[in-house]
Amino acid sequence: MNMILPSSVSATPNGTTRPQVRIVIVGHVDHGKSTLVGRLLHETGSLPEGKLEMLKAVSARRGMPFEWSFLLDALQTERDQGITIDTTQIRFRTRSRDVVLIDAPGHAEFLRNMITGASQADGAVLIIDALEGVRDQTRRHGYLLHLLGIKQVAIVVNKMDRVDFSADRFKAISDEISAHLIGLGVTPSAVIPISARDGDGVAERTPRISWYQGPCVVEALDALEPARPLEQLALRLPVQAIYKFDDRRIVAGRIESGHLSAGDEIVIMPAGKIAKIKTVESWPVTPLHGSHSAGRSVGITLDRELFIERGDVIAHAGATPRDTRRIRARIFWLHDKPLAKGDQVLVRLGTRESRAQVVAIEKAVDPGELSNAETTSIARNHVGEIDLSLAQPVAADPYQDNPRTGRLVIEVNGRIAGGGLVLSVEAGQRAVPIDIVPVESALRPEERSARYRHNGAVIWLTGLPGSGKSTLARALERRLFSRGGSPILLDGDTLRAGLNNDLGFSPQDRSENIRRLAEVATHLARNGHVAIVAAVSPAIADRAAARRIADAAFREIHVAAPAEVCESRDPKGHYAKARAGTLPSFTGITNDYQPPLECELKLDTSTRTVADATDAIERMLAETGVLFDELVDLAANI
Amino acid sequence: MHLLNSESGGAGPQPTALTEASTVPKIFGGQPLPPPSILAEGRLPPPSMDHLDELEAQSIYILREAFARLKKLALLWSLGKDSNVMIWLARKAFFGRVPFPALHVDTGKKFPEMYAFRDRFGKEWELDLKVEPCPPIDAVDPTLPPAARSAARKTEGLKWALTKYGFDGLIAGIRRDEEATRAKERVFSPRGIEGGWDVRDQPPEFWDHFNASPPQGAHLRIHPILHWTEADIWAYTKRENIPIIPLYLSKDGKRYRSLGDQDITNPVASTASSIDEILIELDATKVPERAGRALDHETEDAFERLRVAGYL
Ligand SMILES: Nc1nc2c(ncn2[C@@H]2O[C@H](COP(=O)(O)OP(=O)(O)OP(=O)(O)O)[C@@H](O)[C@H]2O)c(=O)[nH]1
Ligand SMILES: [Mg+2]
After folding, report:
1. Between A and B, how many CB-CB pairs are < 8 A?
2. CA-CA distance, A586 to A578, in Å (whole number)?
3. Whole-model pTM above 0.80?
4. Which of A197, A578, B73, B167 is paired with A368 by a 20 to 30 Å CA distance?
5. B193 touches chain A (CB under 8 A)
């Protein structure tokens, strides 16, 4: 039977109305995944012109009989070694739909690539060699399908030609794998005996498998449903970015679940601020009306100015995600170094990233062997349950409530190292303050800038201890005050004496110190003052976080004197103490200061006078719109 | 009967699997995660987005991720149908304005129609257009077959531009359905310091979380339309009314399906003189899209070698 439609009959040449389903082929190494894909393409008449001849030539060149797997195993090393290394995708059509077939490697070495492929699938075909039977990668892939949330699985028992098409052998394997999957909560939709190499059971039931009554592979694929966007669930819009390309301030992101319209009352999590959606922006036509639902990439404007940043999640009032710093997750681990209790990692949840610590490892299992491994760490290609403590609050849902937002990724050294499902979140002590409405100032920003002849700003002086930050900050404060402005000095050390006296000098505490400085400074800037922050702030990431908080008001100045000069100045005697070993976490002699790659201004205080440097800052502030030079400008402003 | 499906009972022996489930060693104390409640709720109403809407939304998501996570981006504008769609998507993602340069690595051997298109729409779309030349052919690996060697000039031009501007991300309009090694690409694809592609060690990428931290001095390729097909490109071009170079439409029984350098690109036999006709033709054809690109066919590994060295 031929499931492929003669193409001339296709009513929709543009392919826009046919459903598309993505199916991944998984299973143990060499059990015939790539061969099945090649054969499926052939049986359904989907191979492009010249492909068959090309495969023949490629096989012959390697002295091999015809190899279907070479269709997908396109890399030279894959062909030379006869093994799939990386996942790939190819398309064909059945009577009812467009199928994207995702071929995955079976070798344990390339499990990360199998996950990359399988994570994109709506359904899966798990393939088992009839002679070899269920192997460790068969079980591991089965388990990972479950963790990846793939519920539709068809089983294929391949290489039936190698067991003389034995119905008994087929039944034994079928029973074993079905039981295994059902134990994982997955019921296979079909179990099919085939020979991928010869074509039996692929597009039709051949006489050699006459004892089998179920569907052939093409029919089984036709029964798998495309995943649907989660329109029925509560609204979740993780914020990707805030754009201010023109006078609109657009909050951009993709709706992961639910829907939204202009006029909706929303809550911005995890902070719990409330606002109303003013408009839904688009291009070329804008604004858009009506309801926008899961799957759309949108841009919205809000009815009030409030601080919102990448990583926040927009939800409807009364149906918000939880605000938490503690998450329990079931994860798979792909990194060479096992994940251990106490490890510092980076967690990505939606568009939020947060540093995190693994505070507990509850379970660790090798899903290939079904043996409980040691529970102090999770080895590569194993799975486990862990508790994470996050450095900053995040908005999270358990996977049970929302399969899109209830999953996370773990990064180590800038590379994805694992991922999994959020089992539960522990809401913090703090009740969700969804009824906090920031009280707005009685004065409009323009009223203040008219008086001060400047806009609100955060001037951030970063540099080594002794580089001259405080000296410059004080000179600038005097200069701005003399011209009628309202500068306010926030010195890192001064704030540590009070507001921040609960913080030490660990990287985590330093970040929190910077965050608080940035929040206070930003509040002042929003109210029209010029906040001058003088803080070593050694970490690029921390300063980037400060810039995100202060946003367009941020002006970073690198106070850059050579290290020897700073040490010789040593105004507070810190270098001397550090050299003597009595000041352990002192930035300066430990080389952990990260200079800015880009900043608004860089000043070398070893070669210029204080007055000269202050002039340069003043010029920069005028050029970047903080200071008004002319009274004429002012008139236009009133 | 091995349809393990509740509706399929009746004919044939019942699957034994269901009754034997309890003998299987259970992972995590035999507690598989119950499916999310939404999935258990049965049928959902028809989706409110069509196929092109879905493709568009995904591409916009990718472009916005790239813009949020990288410092210095450029979009590679080859002037062809794919990169024009990509520019259109970028304008959608960023509300009309492409907030990074459009880089045309110019071999100097494009069709005159292509240069005319570039000059006109670079202005009309208000692009920050950067045209970068390629080195002379003598500077390129002489062991490559002729067409591949000619194409490799473009890789060299790309490397020059990368060094000149210090981009950490290049947005490129390649698609999986074009060619078998492209089908193995990631959406965010890390490159080595020399611009090379390590196909044996690509990082995992799933659930739309991307690896966006290139090592110092290296860059990332970002592929926002990797999941589109040739037919998708045309259907979208038509729906959005995106301008195209007329060489794609049939003239004297021939048209170009893919546009490269004049000397190594050939037209295919075709009578399709409108996008609608192209779509009908694509639906029936079995000729691969890049059949007219000489460099794909010289040796088995010519294209892979080019790509590993940094070609698109
Ligand atoms: N006899 C027989 N051999 C088969 C059949 N299907 C595949 N093979 C052979 O099994 C070998 C492995 O096939 P592949 O398709 O490369 O296996 P794979 O599962 O894709 O392997 P990896 O991707 O490397 O995990 C090849 O030599 C195939 O020719 C079959 O039905 N019968
Ligand atoms: Mg394979």
Report:
1. 272
2. 6
3. no
4. A197
5. no
Please indicate whether residue A449 is annotated as part of the active site: no
The class (CATH top level) of B51-228+297-308 is alpha beta
Q: How much is the average pLDDT of A463-486?
A: 91
Q: Return the ligand number nearest the Cα of A111.
A: 1
Ligand 1 centroid – CA A81 distance (Å): 12
C-alpha distances (whole Å) from B114 to each of A537, B118, B149 are 50, 6, 22
Architecture of domain A449-635: 3-Layer(aba) Sandwich (3.40)
The HSE-up count of residue A366 (CA atoms within 13 Å, CB side) is: 11
Q: What are the tens digits of pLDDT across the range B141-157?
A: 888 888 888 888 888 89
A-contacting residues in B 156-185 (Cβ below 8 Å): 176-177, 180-181, 183-184
Per-residue pLDDT tens over the stretch B257-295: 988 888 778 899 999 999 999 999 998 888 888 887 777
| Active-site residue identified among A7, A537, A568, A606 | A537
Average pLDDT estimate for B158-175: 93
Tell which one of A30, A66, A79 to mutate to probe ligand 1, the residue whose CB is within 8 A of the most ligand atoms. Answer: A30
Q: Distance between CA atoms of A481 and A478, rounded to whole angstroms?
A: 5
Q: Taking CB atoms and an 8 Å cutoff, what residues of chain B touch A184?
A: 27, 32
- First-to-final CA distance of chain B: 49
The CATH code belonging to domain A323-427 is 2.40.30.10
Q: How far is CA A309 from CA A240, A254, A278, B127, B161, in A?
A: 8, 14, 18, 27, 33
Band (pLDDT 50/70/90 cuts) for residue A430 is very low
Which residues fall within 8 angstroms of residue A280, CB to CB, at 6 or more apart? A260, A261, A262, A287, A288, A289, A292, A298, A299, A300
How is chain A split into domains, by residue range? 20-223, 237-316, 323-427, 449-635
Q: Which fold has domain A237-316?
A: Elongation Factor Tu (Ef-tu); domain 3 (2.40.30)
Quick: pLDDT tens for B103-134: 999 988 889 999 999 999 999 999 999 999 99
What are the boundaries of each domain within chain B?
51-228+297-308
Nearest ligand for residue A200 CA: 1
pLDDT value at residue A618 = 93
Q: Model ipTM? A: 0.86
Is the pLDDT at B2 greater than 60? The verdict is: no
**Count of C-beta atoms within a 10 Å radius of residue B198:** 12
B-chain residue closest to A286, CA distance: B95
Q: Which CATH architecture has domain A20-223?
A: 3-Layer(aba) Sandwich (3.40)
- State whether A365 and B53 contact (CB < 8 Å): no
| Residue B207 alpha carbon to ligand 1 centre in Å | 29
